[in-house]
Task: structure prediction
Amino acid sequence: MTSFNNILPIALAAVSLAGFHPVQAYAQDAEEEKASSRDWIDTLDWNGDLRLRYEGIDEAGEVKRNRFRFRGRFGFASELSNKVQFAVRLATSDGNPVSTNLDFGNGFSSKDIAIDRVFINWNALINLDIALGKMGRPWFRAGSNSLIWDSDLNPEGVHAQWASGMFFVNLGTFVVDERSESDDSLLYSVQAGLDKRFSESSRLIFSAAYFDYTNTIGNPPFYRDQAKGNSVDAAGNFLHDYDIVEISAEYLTVVNDWPVSAYGVWAQNTAVDIQDTAFAVGVRVGLIDAAGKMQFSYTWHDTEADAVMGIFTDSDFGGGSTDSKGHFIKARYGLTGNIALNGTLILSEIEMFRNNRHDYDRVQLDIEFFFD
Result:
């Protein structure tokens, strides 16, 4: 029972706080919109990428696994008017909300393609955008970290983003699980922060956020009943609520012509008393924006069992589960302006809380192709 009555108010409240009334504004601007709008076909902007990957997985007590995978994404965006944009992206997918990778094999079988994103973005004010649909992650993530949100996650709902000067605010309501026989699970989110520039090459970004999931206790995990490290009862249903506070910061500068970013994020599930904390700290050096450029990064992840929602955390680290900690090491090299080589090494320990502590290591070698 999708509660859309709970979705719209949060966006409309953000607009009203700015002294703006959508219906009145549209009536006043109707003629201006009609006169200034262009044929949507003339504003199409295409983009996509293809990634080929070798992956080796070494989990203690299990048979070592080697597999070849691929990910393909293709999309476009268009202006429906000078204030409204429409975007769609297709991707290879088996339905997993945090991975669009598919395996080669299975008897040369056909592979699936799904709708990865489809949303409308309305520029309600100069400083206020409202998005509705299935969109990319709308929150600031220090160092692009994946402690709470995997990079492939595309939440579904309504989101309002306001920015003025150094300050920004994100408000959203998202439909996580619609149920016909019980109340839906929604995600309410609020994030506020500042982006302070000290010079042309130096800036600090800081944010504080709160993520509140509704109707989790007694209901099954949101995707294929996979708890992904979260605590469940004998029937496999959630034992806890997830009301997560997050604080994060990132400092960006340039050292000897090398872009450098140092970042950290801390999260705590305020609805539980144990296994409630997660954090990550890391550094990234370099930027892939031309042939011959390199980038290196290191991050330490530490996530207790019920600190975050397991199904939405990084899908590669620790087997894609909470109750994990360890090292995340990456290197990238630009072969050309739109072809890059990537290497990732993950050294982690998992299931400490479950009294089954063991190593879970993963290596990934990629070649990526980009086009627009």
User: Anything to note?
Assistant: DSSP finds two helices and 17 strands in the chain.
